[in-house]
Model the fold of this input.
Amino acid sequence: EQQKQWGGWTEEIAADFAKAPQTPEQQERWLLEQFDFQNRSSNAPVKAWTVRDGTLVLPKHEWCWLRNVHIRNDTRVVLHVRITGKPEALQVCLNAKNKLRDWNHNPPGYACRFAIWSASTDAVSQGTVDAPSDFNDLVVSSAAKSFANNVGPRDATLTFQRQGEKVSLTLDDEPPYEVSFLTPLIGAKGASSDSVEFDRIGLRTWSQDGVIALRSIQVFRYKLAEQASPDITGDALAEAGHIDQAVEKFINVARDYRDVSEAITVPALTKAYLLAADRGDARAQQECLQLLPKQTRADLTGHLHRVDEVSTFLRWKKGGADRRREAIEAFPRIFAATPGTRIAVDCLEQERDWEDSPL
Done:
């Protein structure tokens, strides 16, 4: 009854490599039934990885994608790993596409890179197309640093999870690093069941062969409550590339629930505003700003801060002394609310792009 009302995590796969068959032929068959091993560009198959001492040994750069598990919504991936020596970037992807233009990019979807730069930090990202990590993805306080001087084998548990807008990365029992991505993933318009969806789960490493080995992997899907959030349809429309319809859906949801629940209306309007801003739909942006409350409860203020940040950037982008003065006056408020904001950098980059453009 509790799961019907609130939802809950349901296990989709649990692979324990200590239980892999012993003979090479059976072991390869067992692996290929569950996993799709591909080259670093994720466009050609490679031979199944090696199981050694009850662990799956990760070769440098090659991909391992789950073959039979496809999840487009909330997902939790739990890796029980054994690390020997200093690791260099273990990447986990979820709600992803296994398509890359450059092998070193993060695939479209949600991705983390654990223990990058000689185990000095981590990175967490979201993208609708494959792209390299940037400084905005870096984790400020990273548990990966505990591996910087690692020598002998060390067992650890790494959990990468997306639930709604919140994406988290957790090492063992350390406090999780959590970031919010308020804009849903945006797919190609007209996506169908035969097209590539944001539903794959994969992993790879930049470590030398054998530095990282997988003892087991578990994947969980969050089963929605019977009364699921009404903005799920808007997310699905955005993922299918129907942005105008997604914006309209989010706004309609906000109107329907305006007097019922801010926990529904504020996220819906935020998503609508960010999608409309990306499309340059001034009418929808204005409608969202009119419907958004000026204040809300503490756990929803991040949505208002993000809208403030984007609207300030758009004022700067439109140019003119008055608009840019208004944008600059908003900077202290934005920095106070979101110390890690890129608002100043984004505005300066916009100025540089304008100066570099041909007349």
Remarks:
- The chain has a mean pLDDT of 87.
- The chain has ten helices and 14 strands.
